[in-house]
Write a structure and sequence with these properties.
15 helices, seven-stranded mixed beta sheet, FAD/NAD(P)-binding domain
Length: about 475
């Protein structure tokens, strides 16, 4: 038997590693079980971090190709060095996972390499790739194993031609034609990367809109922006199959969602981006008696405790949005609860961002949800075409939309489409965290000239009216 730990966490993604650090800060003896060679989970290794490296690099490539001339910068036509771009991505990943390794050592967190399973409460079994198993004795266990890409029946993923987000981050050359299956965040982000680098991108979506779950007005406007950039959409459509051709290409069979004749779309690469599913394989949850819901997620109470005492779960393996920062907040909360504190997550104020260009950021309720709930609401909107800084930056696409209660003026939701939307959304998150009113925001001085002034103008529009429109 190994030493007795206060807390053992299975998985070192954003939820797991943040939970481990917070628990160690609160005086617990912490172990983390990780099956990969590097810490950080999907997000740091094959998700959020590497995709942002490619998004940023491809945006600069696009800007150098098409945006510099209007700013008075004349350069020869930029040449893509894809191996170096991928090297930048790899270096970014290495720096981030190395940072987590440093933080674990600093906080005296013990790492066990291998697949973790739970034979019973108070025990975690670690099975390494080679060598004997190790059994950890622990007072509490947190499952933070995250999620994996979902797939369509009958479609074989090889991560070369038919890829998930993992393969789409490491293509050896720019495909002439790419079909993206799914118009959610991952599909649009990675599709936009390869489109900027020269691919012809067609997005196939089963629903009649892109970005399911986001404000429908935002989704419609954003789709038009992507179409102007060259992205093609086939909505209300389903992929019936992906066939390989003799010429080393692909033929994607697309049918109307409601049934009908199939259409063939030729492609070099097909990206399957239909969502993610919780990863609980090999944990032995059934043996331990841990209850799951109808979608394979671990059922937890308001304190993240499963149906078994001493076993907790956070992040993508429980209900809620599959977002790294949601998992982080839950990791901090459960560590504080185990330390006797009042850990808490406000699920009504968790931002979501689509890191395309322009970005899309949102927090709180959509207009669709407020209508469905019968809430008496009001809308304040302001376009970036009327923002001085946006004009100077040639970044006038998009708008700010704030939704507030018509009776109390409390802000219920906010949506931004525009340059740096992911950075700007947080003043609205903070406002909502403190149950703020739109008038509070309208009366808050914003530096001039900034893109953020558009947020204040949208708040002013909820009252007596915006100044600059």
């Amino acid at each position: 038997m190994a030493d007795q730990f206060d807390l053992t966490i299975i998985g070192s993604g954003p939820g797991g590693y943040v939970c481990a650090i917070r628990a160690a800060q609160l005086g617990m003896k912490v172990a983390v079980v990780e099956k990969w060679a590097t810490l950080g989970g999907t997000c740091l290794n094959i998700g959020c971090i590497p995709s942002k490296a490619l998004l940023h690099a491809s945006e600069l490539f696009e800007e150098a190709n098409h945006g510099f001339k209007a700013l008075g910068i004349d350069i020869p036509t930029p040449q893509l060095n894809l191996p170096q771009m991928l090297n930048h991505k790899s270096e970014t990943v290495a720096s981030n996972v190395g940072g987590v390794d440093y933080l674990f050592k600093k906080n005296k967190i013990t790492v066990f390499r291998g697949i973790g399973s739970i034979p019973s409460a108070g025990k975690v079994l670690v099975t390494p790739q080679s060598g004997p198993q190790t059994e950890i004795a622990t007072k509490n266990i947190v499952v933070a194993t995250g999620s994996v890409s979902a797939n369509l029946p009958g479609i074989e993923i090889d991560e070369k031609q038919v890829v998930t987000s993992t393969g789409a981050l490491s293509l050896e050359k720019v495909p002439a034609k790419m079909v993206v299956i799914g118009a959610g965040v991952i599909g649009l982000e990675l599709g936009s990367v390869w489109m900027r680098l020269g691919a012809q991108v067609t997005v196939v979506e089963y629903l009649d809109r892109i970005l399911p779950g986001m404000d429908s007005e935002v989704a419609r406007q954003f789709q038009r922006m992507l179409q102007k950039q060259g992205m093609e959409f086939k909505l209300s459509s389903k992929v019936a199959g992906v066939d390989r051709t003799d010429q080393n290409g692909l033929q994607v069979r697309v049918e109307p969602a409601k049934g009908g004749d199939a259409e063939i779309i030729d492609a070099d690469v097909a990206l399957v981006a239909i969502g993610r599913k919780p990863f609980t394989e090999g944990l032995g949850l059934d043996i331990a008696g841990v209850a799951l819901d109808e979608r394979g997620r671990i059922r937890v109470d308001g304190h993240f405790k499963s149906s078994v005492d001493g076993i907790y779960a956070i992040g993508d393996v429980i209900a809620g949005p599959m977002l790294a920062h949601k998992a982080e907040d839950e990791g901090i909360a459960v560590a504080e609860i185990l330390a006797g504190q009042a850990g808490h997550v406000n699920y009504a104020a968790i931002p979501a961002v689509v890191y395309t260009n322009p970005e899309v950021a949102s927090v709180g309720k959509t207009e669709d949800e407020l209508k469905a709930d019968g809430v008496n609401y009001k809308i304040g909107k302001f376009p970036f075409t009327a923002n001085g800084r946006a004009k100077a930056m040639l970044a006038t696409q998009g708008f700010v939309k704030i939704l507030a209660d018509a009776d109390t003026d409390r802000v219920l939701g906010a949506h931004i489409v525009g340059k740096n939307a992911g950075e700007m959304i947080h003043e609205l998150v903070t406002l909502m965290e403190f149950s703020g009113a739109s008038e509070d925001l309208a009366r808050t001085t914003h530096a001039h000239p900034t893109l953020s002034e558009a947020i204040r103008e949208a708040a002013l529009a909820l009252g007596d009216g915006a100044i600059h429109i």
